[in-house]
Each structure stands twice: as C-alpha cells, then as structure tokens.
C-alpha cells in the first residue's frame, strides 16, 4: 500500500492532493454549468419536458455530491499524507 502513496522521489501524496483539488474544481464547474443551463432552459421556455428538466436537476445534485465526495477525499489525503511527502 505504501507504494501507492509515494513514488521513489516521495511525491505521490502531493500529486494525489493536487489531483483531488483539480477534480473538486471540475465538479464545481460542472455543477455551476448545469445549474446555469437549467436556468437558461427555464427562462427560454423552450418547452422541454418536465422529465428532461428533472434529469438536469438530478445531474446538478449528482455534481454536488461528486464535489462533496472529492472534497472529503482531499481532506483524507491531506490528513494522511506525511509532512515529508508534501510539496511546499
């Protein structure tokens, strides 16, 4: 398991943290984009079915859950990454 956490240069933990932060930012951007799309659709009155609107709302909720899960993962990585592995 330790091999999964660090490479030969001891950098893996920081890379995982950076990756988790990036995923968190991407999830937030996706959620925001889905919310904006949903607002535009409602404002335009394009006649989308309530099923499609419900699906968009479900996607927004899922994006939020994904962001929360990635944020929690980031916290776990931060708490378990040894100080000597972290990048300044």
Give a count of the beta strands, DSSP E runs of length 2 or more: 0
Q: Work out the strand percent.
A: under 5%
Low-confidence stretches: 1-5
Along the chain, the helix and strand elements come as: HHH
Helical percentage:
over 70%
Query: How many angstroms does the end-to-end distance come to?
Result: 24 Å
Q: Quick one: biggest sheet?
A: none
**Number of H- or I-type helical stretches:** 3
Give the overall shape.
elongated
Structural class: mainly alpha
What's the rounded overall pLDDT mean? Answer: 80
- From the alpha carbons, calculate the radius of gyration and give it in angstroms: 18 Å
Question: Summary?
Answer:
The chain has 88 residues and is mainly alpha-helical.
Question: Could you characterize the architecture of this molecule?
Answer:
- This protein is mainly α and 88 residues long.
- It has helices spanning 2-5, 12-44, 50-80.
- Mean pLDDT is 80; it is low at 1-5.
Give the helix/strand layout.
Elements (H helix, E strand, L loop, with lengths): L1 H4 L6 H33 L5 H31 L8
Helix pairs in contact: 2-3
Keywords:
88 residues, mainly alpha, 3 helices, 77% helix, disordered N terminus
């Amino acid at each position: 398991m330790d091999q999964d956490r660090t490479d030969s240069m001891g950098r893996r933990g920081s890379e995982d943290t950076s990756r988790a932060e990036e995923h968190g930012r991407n999830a937030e951007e996706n959620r925001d984009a889905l919310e904006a799309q949903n607002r535009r659709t409602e404002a335009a009155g394009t006649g989308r079915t309530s099923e499609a609107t419900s699906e968009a709302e479900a996607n927004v909720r899922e994006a939020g859950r994904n962001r929360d899960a990635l944020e929690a993962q980031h916290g776990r990585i931060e708490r378990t990454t040894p100080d000597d592995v972290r990048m300044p």
